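pipeline/complex-builder :: batch 7 item 3
reading input block
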Amino acid sequence: MSGFTAVVGTTDIAILLYFLILNSFYALLLILSIPEIWEQTRLAEDEDFQRLMQSDALPPITILVPAYNESATIEASVTAILTLEYRNYEVVVVNDGSRDDTMEQLRHAFDLYEIPRVYPETIATKPLRALYRSRSRSRLLVLDKENGGKADSLNAAINASRFPLVIAVDADTLIEPDALLRLTRPFLLGRDIAAVGGTVRVANSCTVKDGRVTDARVSSRPLPGIQVIEYLRAFLFGRLGWNRLGGNLIVSGAFGLFRKEYVAAIGGYHTSSIVEDLDLVVRLHRYLRHHKIRYEMPFIPDPVAWTEVPESMKILARQRERWHRGLIAAMWEYKSMLFNPRYGRIGFLAMPFYTFGEMLAPVVEVLGYVVTVLGLAFGIVNVSFALLFILVAWGYGMLLSIWAVVLEEVSFRRYRRFGDLFRLLLFAALENFGYRQCTVWWRLKAFGSVWRRKHVWGDMVRKGFATPS
Amino acid sequence: MTARQFLIVVALVQGVLLGALIVLIILNRWFRLRRSARLNPRRQAIDASMRRWAAGATPLAGVLVGLARLPVPLAIDALVSWSARVPGERWRQLAVALEQHWWARIVRSNSGSARWWKRLECARFLSVAAMPRDAPRLVRLINDSHPAVHVAAVASLERIENSSLTLAALERLPRLPPTVQAYYAAMLRRSRPVVIQHLQKRLRRNDDPALARIAEFAGRLGEPALRERLTTLADHPDPEVRVQSARALGGFPHRESVAALTRLVADSAWATRAQAARSLGMIADVTTLPLVRAALRDPVWWVRLRAALALIRFAAAGRKALLDAEVGADADARAMATLILGLPAQALAEFGT
């Protein structure tokens, strides 16, 4: 019994220590996000966008739009993208062998005509069936190719793109009209930018007119409502904090601007990766550090894209499990970067944080619950102490969520109604009761999936990219 | 302190912080609502008085009073947004009048502030309301280390002509990333005489590491006075400089340009050959047609593409050359000719042919 007590006691202390270090790091991110959001808000407000829009300084951008079975929404989404406030951009839509009539919809809506291919295949992709230009929209290029997954479609679009900056946009993502303009701010401010990430917000319950979010609302349903908080937390304080630490490891695949020469140099998106954006960014860091190229990958909060989040537990579970599986796969694949001085802050800060603080967090949390239950059952842990600990842990989570709401309120205030503000605070409090435990369980299941499907990893990913609208 | 006591303290601190954050959120909302209720009428008032003054319906005094009633950042926003809508002479009256105003004097004094946002405020203000005596301030701001500050300050070149300012911007231009360079170049176009004089000198410095960027900028200006210097650069040892020379010469249909491009189209660097082929297409001198036709057999795909697109610009003769290549012996030239001849007019327009 004394051996068991010692094991439980030691595990308990180890878990406490783990959470102490992790939470201290979160506190650091929280503190660092304050000057960062202050600076970003100031820059966003002070800029004379009209003047910049009239100048020829704006870098030309290619928008990459992979589409698979998007028949119902493709016309509206492409039309919305084609009417963005930006001077010099092109849109490359890739029909990834859709089984529905996505291609027909595009052909009909934009009066497409076939053209021969006039560019080399820099990144190998599945065969192209045909290329089309539009008689009505000169900015539009449509590629029709055999099904190869989202990453393969993005690679095909990169091959066809003419401009030095590329941005991947999901066909079901709504970009704010001035978002591209804002996203190029770091390039105008003259830094060595390799990639820039913008904010992704939750579109559920918002009023959407002509492919634009005209009224931002917080859903009254708990599942999408809590995800609003999650997105605010991830973008407004997580990534802003990482800006100051120089190690943003995620530039959202739904809304991130990349320098094409670097993306092409690393061979584009990996078709075998589960979460292609994380994989791409880690490889970009590796490549740029390897070649001693000066670079930055900032996140800027004011360019906004809206996306629909899952409203059912089943789809949400699948999404979170997939995200975590992608994280595990990426951390495992690039483990040589961990604590490797060659990769500087990425090797010593970002990779350890994502490995130990994000990837292993569900394991440690579940272990904590198990040890606490065992400790209580065998009288090793005091009941009131355990409850107090859980209260503190949850309170801290709530504090971080409410801090994200504070950052939103003092900066961009997209949710103008008091009702929305109230819901944000309510969901920030409710998140810890049930929802958080569910996400821990889904993320834990990802370890099981990785373990079980270890030998058929490639096969599974090649066929399983689809994100129907 | 025991672990339990520590947790109790942490829980209490958390509770207090949570409460404070919620109060902060509510106070922030309340404060912003009050502020916008107070400032909105003033903003509308300044817009109305600016409109009346721009139309000559009211004297300037009303505008000055309205601006003084706004917080400084909002007053600067109003100035920046109205600066493009008010005719130059009238706007100069406002700039002169603002020189005496207390808040404008404070903003001006911030040009040397240790805080970047204060300097940014000053740069934005001076970009629309600078007077000749602000030139030293603006030079300092153009040389500022914060990118937002010097980008805002360089916009002042749109309004005031001053050789020291122009030279400061020109000196900085080659060290900037391409995007910001393009912005600087757009601003510098207004000070053409000073810029051209300076460029004529800079383009003579063969060992200047920034020569390629200077040549690129000079090419964008399309100024005939620079043609001779740009032609000389066609023989520069740096391939990047030769690329820029080839690009610029396409804008000068001159015997010497054609001679230089004739050399460049056979350059050892493929980027130079591609650019030279393109420029030969822009000039479309029939005597160079055989050279462009030969470039269609170049080992590099991009040179072949540029050559084929250039041939389109030679009208009937170029089209015939492409049709010949389509059934010719060289497989690469055949493939490229087939691709380009298959492109409809819209797609060719996209390539800028």
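note: The CA atoms of residues 274 and 326 of chain A lie 5 Å apart.
queue -> next item
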